[in-house]
Amino acid sequence: DKDITRLSYDVVVIGAGGAGLRAAIEARLAGKKTAIISKSLFGKAHTVMAEGGAAAAMGNANSNDNWMVHYKDTIRGGKFLNHYRMAELHAKEAPERIWELETYGALFDRTKDGKISQRNFGGHEYPRLAHVGDRTGLELIRTLQQKIVSLQQEDFAESGDYEARLAVFAETTITELMLTDGKVAGAFGYRREDGQFLLFEAPAVVLATGGVGKSFKVTSNSWEYTGDGHALAMRAGANLVNMEFLQFHPTGMVWPPSVKGILVTESVRGDGGVLRNSEGRRFMFDYIPEVFKAQYATTEEEGDRWYTDPDNNKRPPELLPRDEVARAINSEVKAGRGSPHGGVFLDVSTRMKPEVIIKRLPSMHHQFKELADVDITKEPMEVGPTCHYVMGGVEVDPDSTQSAVPGLFAAGEVAGGMHGSNRLGGNSLSDLLVFGKRAGEYAALYVDQTAERPAVAQSDVDAAMAKALTPLVEDAEGGENPYTVQHELQQVMNDLVGIIRRADELEEALVKIAEFKKRLASVRVGGGRKYNPGWHLAIDLHNMVVVSEAIAKAALERTESRGGHTRDDHGKMDPNWRKINLICSVQGDGVSLRRQPVPTMPIELLGLFDRSELAKYLTEDELAAFDESTK
Ligand code: FAD
């Protein structure tokens, strides 16, 4: 059949961001024939855009740091809803993964005595982010790609074929996972350039597809992030956990309209940038929540002293976790104290010397100059919240990263649980290294343990092909335009499932989503199969809609405010809800939702926290059990 190219691998990794590349390296190191598939150009992924750095308790900048402090910061940031085991593995293994990158050739910024330098970030008690100026993700991807090339060269020396055990398929989109007897048997997709269909037969698939932000109008995410991995997993029978938790990054650009949503890195605040409203007030001092009062400065003087003397002063509230800062900015704008274009002011110009700004924040300097004609060494930036990161994702076993579907693994942003209700900045780059490696390792192990490779049924291939081709017609007249549907969906999600939520609006969103679902059937696109973005979007829309449904359903169900989920009508954090994970799966053509207990944190991890802090999050019963076990 000339319409399809059939390929056979041991492990297929969908996604070429940090998680995917790290997984592929590990699978190849375990001797497995591995494919890496990337929807866009190889080397272009959100990981590249990561600016601030990768969090790892190496203790280089402050020797008091260790995995236990990092663990506590992560759990606090996630408001105790994180999967304890993922957060534990992450905090323990992140330093090793960073040092290992150096052996692959990474060049991090240095301390005076030659160690990897670490910078401050919101929610992290000590300077903890390993970084390369504000271009850390670029270095991370460069290094991982370099490692891949070096492995390919080894294979060439051995076999005469660079791609003997590690092949990259760029601009290739997976649209369906293939299952046989409930187990992974492969993945089906198309090549962007010519529309050629490809079938990858493989017993193990690693999802590393990143986020879902493109379903929102104002977002830091780029075009690829239509929640493909989340949707593929659900359709294959895996579960998504806690999709209501989305991170609205507090500082996106707000002006000009064409760049609205583009990220302004948190390092701007980590390095001394302050937030002010139109009255010139550093308003974050008015928004320190009770649970964080003990850790943050209450006066500007103390906050300012902290930058030079962190051991004897508390950090400024500009460095509260992102959910807190985003909500505060939202409130200031709503109260009429916003900047001219509907944001607030973020200022480094009055606090840092121009040469320091240019050295430490080169990309930000460039970004504002080029896109907004603002010189950040001379004037403040205007910023506001932007949809940035999804904490919810595929429910996985923490150690192996395997989902409920045998042979299906997930790592990086597409996986859920690690960050609880809110992710700390810098914890994503370390997350994707730690769990990317584990995904590759356990996928390889799974292949070793699979005696017989499941064969892909021809009928499944035919069905996948027919589904992909449905929207493509000679004449699209009379059909729904995919761009119109996407635009309307983005607006609905932004307006009704955005940073502040209410039951009636979420219900309205679900009615609209049900309509989008119906409209999907009549989306039509003209033109051929060669490089046809309209056709590609028509396919992606199915993923965007099902993921949006999961987000809206979970957001309606959770009647409390926690981390990246804020309910106007249920403003408080409720200790009873802390015990509940919301699980989404696909049933028929809809998303079904159920409650599931949050795995219980073992006593040796709970005991890392002061009792007074636990009392802010746990129920009376849980506290009594804690007291009993520590007697
Ligand atoms: P990504 O790097 O997002 O890669 C996903 C890959 O999957 C891509 O290759 C994509 O093409 C591919 N893909 C998607 N769908 C398909 C499909 N259907 N078929 C085939 N391939 C597919 N985090 C930090 O820790 N520190 C930071 O400083 C930081 N800064 C950030 C700045 C910006 C602007 C953004 C957007 C994010 C930032 N983050 C940061 C978050 C972090 O970068 C991401 O969460 C992380 O890089 C996700 O990595 P990943 O490997 O899971 O996926």
Automatic annotation (TrEMBL):
<feature type="domain" description="Fumarate reductase/succinate dehydrogenase flavoprotein-like C-terminal">
    <location>
        <begin position="487"/>
        <end position="603"/>
    </location>
</feature>
<feature type="binding site">
    <location>
        <position position="265"/>
    </location>
    <ligand>
        <name>substrate</name>
    </ligand>
</feature>
<dbReference type="GO" id="GO:0033765">
    <property type="term" value="F:steroid dehydrogenase activity, acting on the CH-CH group of donors"/>
</dbReference>
<keyword id="KW-0285">Flavoprotein</keyword>
<feature type="binding site">
    <location>
        <position position="413"/>
    </location>
    <ligand>
        <name>FAD</name>
    </ligand>
</feature>
<feature type="binding site">
    <location>
        <position position="249"/>
    </location>
    <ligand>
        <name>substrate</name>
    </ligand>
</feature>
<dbReference type="Pfam" id="PF02910">
    <property type="entry name" value="Succ_DH_flav_C"/>
</dbReference>
<feature type="binding site">
    <location>
        <begin position="428"/>
        <end position="429"/>
    </location>
    <ligand>
        <name>FAD</name>
    </ligand>
</feature>
<feature type="active site" description="Proton acceptor">
    <location>
        <position position="322"/>
    </location>
</feature>
<dbReference type="InterPro" id="IPR030664">
    <property type="entry name" value="SdhA/FrdA/AprA"/>
</dbReference>
<feature type="binding site">
    <location>
        <position position="423"/>
    </location>
    <ligand>
        <name>substrate</name>
    </ligand>
</feature>
<dbReference type="InterPro" id="IPR003953">
    <property type="entry name" value="FAD-dep_OxRdtase_2_FAD-bd"/>
</dbReference>
<feature type="binding site">
    <location>
        <position position="388"/>
    </location>
    <ligand>
        <name>substrate</name>
    </ligand>
</feature>
<feature type="domain" description="FAD-dependent oxidoreductase 2 FAD-binding">
    <location>
        <begin position="10"/>
        <end position="429"/>
    </location>
</feature>
<dbReference type="Pfam" id="PF00890">
    <property type="entry name" value="FAD_binding_2"/>
</dbReference>
<feature type="binding site">
    <location>
        <begin position="38"/>
        <end position="53"/>
    </location>
    <ligand>
        <name>FAD</name>
    </ligand>
</feature>
<keyword id="KW-0274">FAD</keyword>
<dbReference type="InterPro" id="IPR027477">
    <property type="entry name" value="Succ_DH/fumarate_Rdtase_cat_sf"/>
</dbReference>
<keyword id="KW-0560">Oxidoreductase</keyword>
<protein>
    <submittedName>
        <fullName>Succinate dehydrogenase flavoprotein subunit</fullName>
    </submittedName>
</protein>
<dbReference type="InterPro" id="IPR015939">
    <property type="entry name" value="Fum_Rdtase/Succ_DH_flav-like_C"/>
</dbReference>
<dbReference type="InterPro" id="IPR036188">
    <property type="entry name" value="FAD/NAD-bd_sf"/>
</dbReference>
<feature type="binding site">
    <location>
        <position position="228"/>
    </location>
    <ligand>
        <name>FAD</name>
    </ligand>
</feature>
<feature type="binding site">
    <location>
        <begin position="15"/>
        <end position="20"/>
    </location>
    <ligand>
        <name>FAD</name>
    </ligand>
</feature>
<dbReference type="InterPro" id="IPR037099">
    <property type="entry name" value="Fum_R/Succ_DH_flav-like_C_sf"/>
</dbReference>
